[in-house]
Write a structure and sequence with these properties.
80% of the residues lie in helices and 0% in strands. It is mainly alpha-helical. The model has no long low-confidence stretch (mean pLDDT 92).
């Protein structure tokens, strides 16, 4: 699962995407409608750490697979769109299948 740079990126992307969805659609409503600001504090911190791991994974794939800068920018931008990482994962899955031996 975490053997190649792309598999690590896919894993961090999915986990980061889930944390973003939880932050937006669970923690934020809890803070707003149920007066529970700690929900955003906890999930926001977790999401921030996962986001940094995702960015590091993007950088690693950029170096190993020599991605063009536009692909790197797209990989970063999709993480700001709810469900964006899940859509982007489909192209990563295809790329991983096309280059199964490129490990670092």
């Amino acid at each position: 699962m975490l053997q190649t740079p792309i598999s690590r990126l896919r894993t961090f992307g999915i986990v980061e995407g889930i944390s973003y969805i939880l932050l937006l659609f669970v923690a934020m409503p809890l803070r707003t409608f149920m007066d529970m600001p700690e929900a955003v504090s906890i999930s926001g911190m977790a999401h921030g750490i996962l986001f940094l791991l995702y960015i590091l994974a993007v950088g690693h794939v950029w170096l190993v697979h020599r991605w063009p800068l536009t692909r790197v920018i797209i990989a970063v931008l999709v993480s700001f769109i709810p469900f964006g990482n899940f859509v982007f994962d489909q192209s990563l899955k295809k790329e991983e299948q096309d280059n199964p031996t490129k490990a670092a």
